[in-house]
């Protein structure tokens, strides 16, 4: 082996990776060997990674990814109040992980430190209201932190957003980020396969979604940050782990490592830009209409409503025994608004009750409510103050849709901590119970009631409600009689209402009224509908109307509440008495939501007796149908032809939907593959320019350049100053399967370039055939994945970038001197630079 060959070798590299004479390599902190290489210190003697610059980069990556997860708390909290506990938990968690990595603590020591930090330092971040001066913890702080770690998860998914109304829930984001940061930081700083740190980060994202709301925060930004930063950081750590296996390094390997890191940084920026463009263009098209799954929409809170008697059971007590009693006073009530006591949507044949809701019931759930309640309802913001008089009970009188409830007085804390609200049915309940003297303010959204003309031009929506059971048979029969032959739900509802009003007599059983039994059981409703004179009050007629509407497929629910008499003037306080109690039906209409429908007959209603046969029709007797007649020959263009045509069209393939799906799938793939396709197209154009160059000798040089660029893309670049034969030797070591044809190709190129005449077209064509054979041999030794990555690699393009610039703009470099083998024959043509 020659001196030049010996000097040209580097540790672990082939002989062709030479260096200029007199060149020396740099040294690392671990020391420099006499041969210019550096050796790594033994693993046990190295400084902890947490104290290095790489450890700082790990911390930055974790902070960015966990910060993106923290943003997800925004919609649930409704303000930035979640930032203090969440960011505090992340900082303290990373601090514990860093301390454990620095001191090389074991698992038990890290766990003990985590518990100590959580108890002593958690108060200022998670429960600052329980500390002294916002810093020193108290017994309430310790109790809140310890109990919140167990019960906080249940409370956070059973409370009505925004959660800023419940400061004690700040312990949940603090604990979640605290634990996630400890685990992620420990894995990143102390484990060789640091990519496992992405697992707790991803689980944090999922946990934030589950305890949040169906309204996302910044899903596109969060997803891009998690994917791009996670992939780049994970790839960087994987590369470092592979490089760490080599105990000897050189300046060249260090420079290559720096170039690789810079390449990954640029690739990450390109991925982020491409992802941002794709998100802006495609998210509005591909975003599904379905809501995401969160726990608060599927977990039923621990509130058993069946412990409380249905308020409708006390209807006759208010109407008959408490007629003059002042139950409560409402200030700020808008004209036409009603005070809702409870929405009843579950009938079991005994009583109409408030359902507890649940997944798929369509009645919502009761969750904890505070001074702010998230709502999507529309209406005029109205502030209403309610002062309790003779009323007692757990059902909270409210108006419209609540956006917040604030209690006042001595029992404010007790009432506020036990208040639950169902935004679907607009019903509130406080388990502490309302008493005389209690007062509270309602932040309500009150929508004006639509007119009869508005409802006639609208349509009834299909809303899910709990199925009524033990309904008397007379309900369906009476409903069929009142609706006649109508099929439009709006007209059917109007006919049901008109039939009850025209056939009934109003009576609450007062001395001046006809006798009327209370209750709304199946027996009471059956008796009401079977009598010639239907006598009852709001309680019976509202239940009858709701059940008849349900028998016709119309969603209907009963509401019990109060509204002022016609003599009341807007702007004056409404003092609700027992005489103002009412019950009405609500039906969902498109564009208006749940609309109240009243069915209250007159007290002195003059009823004309109906024929006995028409009161409750008997079930029809099915007769055998007559055999159909032979249809007449259908003429062209008849209705039969049109119906057959419509059936054929409806049963055909939906090409429009198929095209939409195809576009939704194809466009993202095209956008993602576009950069790769551009790279392949550019390389193909570069090859064509080389093969069709104006000068024949340039076509030969271009063929050899094509081989060098392919080697560069395959990960075995040839030094820039090497001759063709030196390059062939290097390629032979990197690609043994193509060694012989590569050396032959180099000699042929030298002979043609330095020959006496221009190569003929046949010689050029033969040379390029050899080029293709060499390329095939080089690629055949590599896995398919590496061949595909080489096809879209930018290495050869970056190496050729300077050649695109004019000479005066190219940066000057000190030429590298190589010992070249003299070329055969006289030199009559310029060689390759």
Description:
- Strand 15 (504-506), helix 16 and strand 16 form a beta-alpha-beta unit.
- The strands form six sheets. Strands 11-14-8-3-18 form a five-stranded antiparallel β-sheet. The chain has a five-stranded antiparallel β-sheet with strand order 10-4-17-19-20.
- It has 26 helices and 20 strands.
- By secondary structure, it is an alpha+beta fold.
- Residues 530-601 form the Transglutaminase-like domain.
- This is Transglutaminase domain-containing protein.
- Residues 24-41 have a biased composition (Low complexity).
Order of strands, widest sheet: 11-14-8-3-18
Query: Globular, elongated, flat, extended or rod-shaped: what is the shape?
Result: elongated
Extended strand count: 20
Mean pLDDT: 79
Domain Transglutaminase-like: 530-601
Biased composition (Low complexity): 24-41
Biased composition (Basic and acidic residues): 604-615
InterPro entries: Bact_TGase-like, Papain-like_cys_pep_sf, TgpA-like_C, TgpA_N, Transglutaminase-like
Topology of helices and strands:
Elements: H1 3-8, E1 38-39, H2 53-70, H3 74-77, H4 83-103, H5 107-126, H6 139-157, H7 171-190, H8 198-210, H9 219-243, E2 248-249, H10 251-286, H11 315-321, E3 326-331, E4 339-344, E5 346-347, E6 352-353, E7 367-368, E8 380-388, E9 393-396, E10 398-399, E11 401-408, H12 412-416, E12 419-422, E13 427-434, E14 439-446, H13 452-456, H14 473-483, H15 489-503, E15 504-506, H16 522-530, E16 534-536, H17 538-551, E17 557-562, E18 574-577, E19 581-589, E20 593-597, H18 612-615, H19 639-651, H20 655-691, H21 696-713, H22 724-734, H23 739-753, H24 761-780, H25 784-791, H26 795-799
Parallel strand pairs: 15-16
Antiparallel strand pairs: 1-2, 3-8, 3-18, 4-10, 4-17, 5-6, 7-12, 8-14, 9-13, 11-14, 12-13, 17-19, 19-20
Helix pairs in contact: 2-4, 2-7, 2-8, 2-9, 4-5, 4-7, 5-6, 5-7, 7-8, 9-10, 10-20, 14-16, 14-17, 15-17, 21-23, 21-24, 22-23, 23-24
Protein name: Transglutaminase domain-containing protein
Biased composition (Low complexity): 24-41
Domain Transglutaminase-like: 530-601
């Amino acid at each position: 082996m020659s001196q030049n060959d010996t000097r040209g070798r580097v540790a672990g590299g082939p002989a062709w990776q030479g260096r200029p004479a007199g060149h020396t390599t740099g040294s690392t902190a671990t020391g420099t060997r006499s041969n210019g290489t550096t050796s790594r210190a033994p693993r046990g003697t190295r400084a902890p990674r947490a104290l290095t610059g790489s450890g700082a980069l790990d911390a930055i990556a974790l902070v960015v990814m966990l910060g993106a997860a923290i943003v997800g708390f925004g919609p649930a909290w409704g303000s930035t109040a979640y930032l203090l506990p969440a960011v505090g938990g992340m900082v303290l968690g990373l601090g514990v992980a860093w301390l454990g990595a620095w001191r090389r603590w074991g698992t038990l020591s890290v766990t003990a430190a985590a518990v100590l930090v959580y108890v002593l330092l958690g108060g200022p971040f998670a429960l600052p209201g329980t500390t002294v001066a916002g810093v020193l913890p108290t017994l309430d702080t310790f109790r809140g932190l310890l109990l919140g770690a167990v019960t906080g998860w249940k409370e956070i998914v059973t409370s009505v957003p925004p959660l800023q109304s419940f400061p004690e829930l700040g312990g949940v984001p603090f604990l979640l980020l605290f634990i996630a940061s400890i685990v992620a930081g420990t894995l990143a700083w102390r484990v060789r396969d640091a990519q496992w740190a992405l697992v707790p980060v991803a689980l944090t994202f999922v946990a934030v979604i589950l305890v949040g709301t169906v309204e996302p925060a910044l899903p596109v930004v969060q997803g891009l940050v998690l994917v791009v930063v996670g992939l780049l950081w994970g790839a960087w750590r994987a590369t470092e782990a592979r490089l760490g296996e080599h105990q000897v390094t050189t300046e060249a390997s260090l420079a290559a490592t720096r170039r690789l890191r810079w390449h990954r940084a640029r690739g990450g920026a390109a991925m982020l830009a491409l992802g941002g463009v794709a998100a802006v263009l495609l998210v509005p098209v591909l975003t599904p209409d379905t809501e995401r799954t969160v726990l608060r929409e599927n977990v039923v809170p621990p509130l058993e409503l069946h412990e409380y008697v249905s308020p409708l059971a006390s209807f006759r007590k208010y109407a008959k025994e408490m007629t003059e009693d002042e139950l409560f006073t409402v200030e700020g009530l808008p004209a036409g608004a009603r005070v809702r006591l409870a929405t009843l949507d579950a009938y079991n044949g005994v009583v109409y009750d408030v359902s507890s809701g649940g997944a798929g019931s369509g009645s919502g759930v009761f969750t904890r409510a505070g001074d702010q309640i998230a709502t999507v309802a529309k209406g005029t913001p109205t502030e209403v103050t309610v002062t309790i008089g003779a009323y007692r009970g757990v059902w909270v009188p409210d108006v419209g849709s609540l956006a917040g409830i604030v209690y006042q007085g001595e029992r404010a804390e007790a009432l506020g901590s036990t208040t639950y609200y169902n935004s679907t049915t607009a019903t509130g309940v406080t388990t502490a119970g309302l008493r005389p003297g209690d007062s509270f303010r309602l932040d309500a959204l009150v929508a004006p009631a639509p007119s009869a003309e508005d409802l006639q031009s609208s349509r009834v929506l299909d809303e899910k409600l709990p199925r009524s059971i033990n309904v008397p048979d007379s309900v369906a029969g009476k409903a069929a009689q009142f609706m006649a032959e109508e099929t439009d739900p709006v007209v059917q509802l109007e006919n049901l209402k008109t039939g009850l009003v025209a056939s009934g007599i109003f009576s609450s059983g007062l001395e001046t009224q006809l006798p009327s039994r209370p209750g709304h059981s199946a027996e009471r409703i059956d008796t009401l509908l079977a009598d010639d004179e239907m006598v009852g009050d709001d309680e019976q007629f509202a239940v009858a109307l709701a059940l008849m509407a349900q028998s016709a497929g119309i969603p209907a629910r009963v509401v019990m509440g109060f509204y002022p008499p016609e003599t009341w003037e807007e702007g004056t306080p409404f003092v609700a008495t027992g005489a103002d109690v009412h019950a009405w039906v609500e039906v969902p209409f498109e564009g208006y939501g749940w609309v109240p429908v009243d069915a209250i007959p007159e007290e002195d209603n003059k009823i004309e007796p109906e024929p006995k046969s028409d009161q409750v029709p008997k079930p029809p007797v099915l007769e055998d149908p007559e055999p159909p007649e032979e249809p007449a020959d259908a003429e062209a263009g008849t209705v039969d032809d049109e119906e057959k045509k419509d059936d054929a069209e409806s049963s055909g393939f939906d090409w429009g939907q198929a095209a939409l799906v195809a576009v939704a799938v194809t466009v993202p793939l095209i956008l993602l593959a576009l950069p790769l396709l551009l790279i392949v197209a550019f390389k193909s154009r570069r090859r064509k320019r080389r093969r069709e160059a104006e000068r024949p000798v340039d076509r030969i040089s271009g063929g050899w350049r094509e081989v060098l660029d392919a080697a560069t893309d395959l990960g075995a670049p040839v030094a820039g100053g090497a001759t063709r034969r030196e390059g062939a030797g290097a390629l032979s070591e990197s690609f043994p399967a193509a060694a012989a044809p590569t050396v032959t190709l180099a000699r042929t190129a030298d002979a043609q370039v330095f020959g006496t005449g221009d190569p003929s077209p046949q010689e050029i064509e033969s040379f390029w055939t050899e080029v293709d054979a060499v390329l095939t041999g080089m690629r055949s030794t590599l896995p398919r994945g590496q061949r595909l990555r080489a096809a879209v690699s930018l290495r050869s393009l970056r190496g050729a970038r300077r050649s695109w610039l004019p000479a005066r703009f190219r940066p000057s470099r000190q030429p590298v001197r190589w010992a070249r083998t003299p070329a055969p024959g006289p030199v009559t043509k310029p060689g390759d630079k």
